[in-house]
Amino acid sequence: GNEDLVHTILNYIVLQLPGLSHFGTEVYLGKGRADIVILYKEKNKAMIIELKYDQGSAGGALRQIKTGGYSVPIPERYEVIHLGVNVEQSKVVSVVYDIPS
Question: Which of 50, 85, 93, 99 maximizes the CB count within 10 A of its CB?
Answer without folding.
Answer: 50
